[in-house]
Write a structure and sequence with these properties.
This protein is an alpha+beta fold. It has four domains: about 25-185, no CATH class; about 185-260, no CATH class; about 265-475, no CATH class; about 490-600, no CATH class. About 45% of the residues lie in helices and about 10% in strands. The protein has 21 helices and twelve strands. The strands form four sheets. Strands 1, 2, 5 and 6 form a four-stranded mixed β-sheet that branches. A four-stranded antiparallel β-sheet has the order 9-10-11-12, sandwiched between helices. A two-stranded antiparallel sheet has the order 3-4. Helix 17 packs parallel to helix 19 (about 535-550). The protein is elongated and about 100 Å long. The two termini are about 60 Å apart.
């Protein structure tokens, strides 16, 4: 299913002139140099193709569409056509094994004479003449190459350019036809029925590598591969166990690499490098999805990971969509810009040794995806403790709250990240492991203003509220659902919520009596008060009387304590973890309400 959907997307993009997706037999590769040769095959110049890296860093190889690069392994790896490193193209390297280097050049030369044997054009003949006349024994003494040997030895790919012509030789129409003819079918091909198209055709022995997956092999890894007899059946070896045609294998791997190389179409969710696409060549689907997955936050925020400039029109459109969803309005066709019935896909890939694991895969209509994502942000909506916090919390910020702020390893649980993503896309309950992880942090962390650590903060409160709200909605627990509001609910009679509010009031009494105090009752009593209220609150209420007597505004706090206590019949001996979550919400709502009122009165 996944390969079929990727192949279909490849076919859609190849029909779009602006997609720049390589056609069958070609691929994208990093290229550092071009050999400028004459019609007589003479080496005239070595042209650097390197470009400036991100943020003005050192020069890096340029990405070009070249004849498909082979999947290499071992010491006798086959050569690539018209694009390879100096070992193959020029017969020179610094590895200290002249015979191996010579064999590589000979293999490169033989490949080109085989593919271009029927060529009649000037470009093909120039390449063949160059290879026929090139003397690898004195190649490193050539004045054109001598001054660039160190750069060539770094392993950059080299292409060919015909002097006086625009572009590169591998783009010559005659050469492209001959390469495609050679690449489509060979004498050693295994013919079988392709699982993707159903056609009887040449089956791929090895599938191309997938690159740009975080923590996977730098040279790329496979989705489909078999490397042991235990995985083989019916006498079939390697990828013949899952017969996929050469064309389909090329198509799905090419379009997947295309998306993984596109920063706008790729996001990181835990250990899963995630790509998304619609059955349309229109960029607006990708732009909207990217903004929905990872809403733009203020650039002054340290947490911001945006590294490319997003379209402000898309940002505004998504913001309007989420505002409509939060207010209960129906999401329309986004001003007629999209078709809500267009099929949409999300694929999460995780590293697994030399292979890639499918962390999650989801397909739905784009309209349904927008609805469920908007519902997620609506469930996460809660009053902010600081104005600069994002209105819509990105997924990576959510997951970050499950990790200790003092831990050097900031990686979240891979299984948790995948489970959270699935719950958002399916509209189901959030994973219990997410709630448990956040509650552990609430209980374990101690406030530290200098390190910006807050045990009960905006994001944690939002996660707790969203988790409890979805469960209440699914279980049709309307009484609990009424408590899980965006801001303070002073009419709520829920005991767990009231206890959280009461704790916030008692903490405020202490702070009013001791302005500038570093450690409050929260540091010592919060975890136990939320778990065993009956054992802790009598102690806190006695302490509060001293604080009220000492404070200039003690009478106001006393009335607030009294109004809350009137709704609590007795202190429970213990609270379940879900009840503790409601306690945390009550505390958070009350704390934010205090400071909101202070801002309004100027106190």
């Amino acid at each position: 299913m996944i390969i079929h959907d990727l192949t279909k997307y490849y076919e859609i993009l190849t029909e779009d002139e602006n997609s720049h997706v390589p056609s069958f037999g070609f691929s994208s590769a990093k290229v550092g140099f071009a050999l400028n040769i004459s019609e007589k095959g003479e080496l005239l110049d070595l042209i650097s193709l390197k470009v400036e890296g991100n943020k003005g860093k050192k020069l890096v190889d340029r990405m070009l569409t070249v004849p498909e690069q082979l999947k290499r392994a071992g010491t006798n790896a086959p050569p690539n056509f018209l694009c390879d490193n100096s070992k193959y193209v020029l017969g020179i390297d610094d590895k200290g094994n002249p015979q191996r280097t010579k064999d590589a050049f000979i293999a490169f030369k033989e490949l080109h004479f085989h593919v271009l044997k029927e060529a009649k054009g000037i470009a093909a003949k120039a390449v063949l003449t160059f290879l026929d006349n090139w003397n690898i024994d004195v190649a490193d003494q050539n004045p054109v190459l001598n001054k660039n040997l160190n750069d060539l030895y770094e392993g950059s790919n080299i292409v060919f350019r015909l002097d006086g012509q625009i572009g590169f030789i591998h783009n010559d129409e005659e050469i492209k036809k001959l390469w495609k003819k050679n690449n489509s079918k060979s004498e050693n091909d295994v013919i079988g029925q392709c699982l993707i198209t159903g056609e009887r055709t040449s089956i791929a022995r090895l599938h191309p590598n997938i690159k740009n997956v975080k923590d996977a092999q730098p040279m790329g890894a496979s989705i489909v591969s078999f490397n042991a007899s235990a995985y083989e059946s019916y006498g079939k070896t390697q990828s013949y166990n899952s017969p996929v045609s050469k064309h389909s294998a090329f198509a799905y791997s090419t379009v997947l690499n295309h998306m993984l190389a596109n920063q706008k179409q790729r996001i990181q969710i835990g250990d899963a490098t995630t790509v998304f696409w619609a059955e349309s060549p229109e960029d607006i689907y990708i732009d909207l999805a990217a903004e929905l997955f990872n809403p733009t936050i203020k650039q002054t925020e340290k947490e911001s990971k945006d590294v490319y400039k997003r379209d402000t029109k898309i940002e505004k459109l998504v913001k309007d969509v989420l505002m409509r969803a939060k207010s209960g309005q129906k999401i329309n066709d986004l001003e007629g810009k999209i078709d809500l019935q267009t099929k949409f896909y999300i694929l999460g890939l995780s590293p697994n040794a030399s292979r890639l694991s499918i962390r999650f895969f989801h397909s739905d209509s784009f309209g349904s995806f927008v609805d469920k994502t908007a519902q997620h942000y609506k469930d996460m909506e809660i009053v902010k403790d600081f104005d600069h916090k994002p209105d819509n919390i990105p997924i990576w910020m959510m997951l970050g709250e499950t990790v200790s702020p003092k831990s050097k390893n900031k990686d979240t649980s891979p299984l948790l990240a995948g489970a959270v993503m699935r719950s958002i896309l399916n509209g189901g309950a959030y994973p219990t492991s997410l709630f448990n992880a956040v509650m552990i942090r609430v209980r374990a962390d101690i406030d530290d203003k200098e390190k910006n650590i807050h045990r009960v903060n905006y994001i944690r409160a939002a996660i707790i509220k969203a988790y409890l709200l979805r469960n209440a909605r699914i279980q049709k627990n309307t009484k609990l659902e009424e408590v899980l509001t965006v801001s303070l609910n002073e009419q709520s009679t829920n005991t767990d919520y009231l206890l959280g509010r009461l704790f916030a009031v008692l903490e405020k009494a202490q702070q009013d009596a001791n302005p500038g105090i570093n450690a409050t009752i929260k540091d010592r009593y919060f975890a136990s008060a939320s778990a065993t209220p009956a054992a802790v609150f009598p102690i806190l209420l006695r302490l509060a009387q001293h604080h009220i007597a000492k404070s200039d505004y003690g009478y106001a706090i006393d009335r607030k304590i009294e109004s809350i206590m009137n709704e609590i019949s007795k202190f429970p001996s213990h609270l379940t973890l879900e009840q503790q979550g409601t306690f945390v919400l009550g505390y958070y709502h009350q704390r934010v309400a205090f400071y909101q009122k202070s801002d309004k009165t100027g106190k």
